[in-house]
Amino acid sequence: xxxxxxxxxxxxxxxxxxxxxxxxxxxxxxxxxxxxxxxxxxxxxxxxxxxxxxxxxxxxxxxxxxxxxxxxxxxxxxxxxxxxxxxxxxxxxxxxxxxxxxxxxxxxxxxxxxxxxxxxxxxxxxxxxxxxxxxxxxxxxxxxxxxxxxxxxxxxxxxxxxxxxxxxxxxxxxxxxxxxxxxxxxxxxxxxxx
Length: 194
Hints:
Layout: E1 3-8, H1 14-26, E2 30-35, H2 37-46, H3 51-56, E3 60-62, E4 80-86, H4 88-95, H5 102-112, E5 116-121, H6 128-139, E6 143-144, H7 158-171
Parallel strand pairs: 1-2, 1-4, 2-3, 4-5, 5-6
């Protein structure tokens, strides 16, 4: 059985973490979840979910300050970690190995154990400092996967856009959640002629 650590930070876009959690729950994939205090506020502000509803979807929930939790050690086997959404503060902490809470400690452990770490960085526009942080964590093995929508699948709703980004994040772990229609090429009627 796959085990995924999920960090939800206070950046706008808490629905990405919630949808990821709903999908893991539906697929019966074990989830180990840390929700920051800022994320709790964002969840209440941006969504129709209560924090308790979100926690009820988790296999395991950890306190942000519980640095001694099982997921803070590389000896606890998981398949990897997603941070959705990932704030710039969290990105900066990971880039600088500043493990002051369980989200950043678990991310650091994920990198040191050469496991997949996917960061759904939620900010725009990026300045050079942000880009340098992204370069740093990429050099350490992380995957930067900002929730940038595509439109080839002709989304009809905000859910369609959220699902596509979450589906792309789960793809990184070989989890085909079938949340969006995959590109299959232009058909003959739509092909471009010169």
